[in-house]
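thread: overnight batch results

M.L. [08:02]
morning all. the overnight job finished for the chain we discussed friday. pasting input first so we're all looking at the same thing
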Amino acid sequence: MLLVAIVAGFLMAFLGSMPPVGPIAVMLLERGVSGRYREGRGIALGATIAETLYCALAMAGISELMSRYAIVETIARALGVVILFALGIHFARLTIAPREEATDSTNKRASFGAAFGLGFGVSAANPVLIITWSGSIATLLSFAHLRFTAAERAAFVAGVFAGMFAWFHLFLWLLQRYRSKITLHAAQWSVRVAGAAMIALALWGARLVLIPLHH
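M.L. [08:03]
and the structure it wrote out:
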């Protein structure tokens, strides 16, 4: 069962990270097409760690506490909407320019550290991920008729980390491999369209947040 838990976590995270309209995916796209792969790897690692921690909290049953106290879930959703809306506006107005990676080792370390903090911060500032992972885990356990032990829960979380990390790095590798075939103009409009989609998702999420407040 440990292998089943790891594979399930890996596949859920790998496939779930593929949609190109998420904040992290858009940031990786922008870094990749502008040649800032080191920054992209930092963002990927930071985001993976933060979301894996939320997945672990979901596995630990924190979502039950959030559902018991409705105001906590409402605040989490509202915060996620604000973050998504702000990033959507930023990406919708973004202009991508090519930039070579710094050659100085100190600048490289600083760039990676700042990118790591950015990736971690964007994911960590979206506690609604606990709710998302709780729903995904509940669906998996229900449809597969599974019950995870403590060790299997830990294995699932490890699989989630590996799956998310694998997709982000594969995405960056693809951008690096085929960068010459991707024009900055096309990439810029892709990022802007993704930003517009994020704004639309934020507005839809805001509606879901506001509806319970009227009851």
